[in-house]
Amino acid sequence: MTTSLRTATPADADRLAALAAITFPLACPPDSDPAAVAEHIRTQLSPERFVAWTASADHALLVAESPRSPRSPDGAAEAGGSDASDGAGDLVGYALLVRGVPDDADIVAVVGDEPTVELSKIYVHPSSQGTGVASDLLRAALDAAPALVPDRAVWLGTNGENARAQAFYRKHGFSFAGTRTYVVGGEAHDDVVMVRPLD
After folding, report:
1. Cβ distance 148 to 99 under 8 Å?
2. pTM (two decimals)
3. Helix, strand, coil share (%) of the chain residues, nearest 5
4. Are 114 and 120 in contact, with CB atoms under 8 Å apart?
């Protein structure tokens, strides 16, 4: 099955929010408060957020799209999927880059206080994990980063307990650079900060 990568549009927002509601909890530690995770999804991963990111010059939002999958026996489309009449494929992943000046002291200590690019989010639907989609999406995001801020390393934060994610990022050239606190729905989590130097 061929998966294509493209820049997201406002029309993708509802499907992206549905996909985020599936993928974000899977990246959280098992002991995370479900209510805090749900609050984060509601406030930080809403369709309105995705629409705003598509319109922002400080963000690059990419999606991975596969040909439409068969509908379920009850006729309902899977989250991230499209209506049979709209001609679109299924969204199976997304990545968000953010241009900005870090205001967190822990991040400033790692990347400095000048404009930089954060790989804020990269998620793939469980059914597409292990297919190469995540690697393709990450490479596309890294290719897009210089258009936001040229000649700067890309950084990210990921949960300190998520060994699988850290291994994935190391495979693609990121290395451990520090730690930070990341708040999910009012609940504090310990993240590791990883940086990928310029090629």
Report:
1. yes
2. 0.87
3. 35, 30, 35
4. no
Query: Which uninterrupted H or E stretch holds 115?
Result: none
Q: Are strands 154-159 and 116-124 parallel, antiparallel or unpaired?
A: parallel
Q: CB-based contacts of 76: which residues, under 8 Å, 6+ apart?
A: none
CA pseudo-torsion sign 172, 69, 126, 14: positive
The enclosing H or E element of 160 equals none
Pairing of strands 154-159, 187-196: antiparallel
pLDDT of residue 38 exceeding 90: yes
Question: Per-residue pLDDT tens for 151-180?
Answer: 999 999 999 889 999 999 999 999 999 998
Per the CB < 8 A criterion, the answer to whether 93 and 137 are in contact is: yes
Q: Max Cα separation, the chain? A: 53
Alpha-carbon distance 98 to 148, whole Å? 8
Query: In the structure, what pLDDT confidence band is assigned to residue 87 with cuts at 50, 70 and 90?
Result: very low
Strands 116-124 and 59-66 turn out to be: unpaired
* CA nearest neighbour of 95 among 57, 48, 136: 136
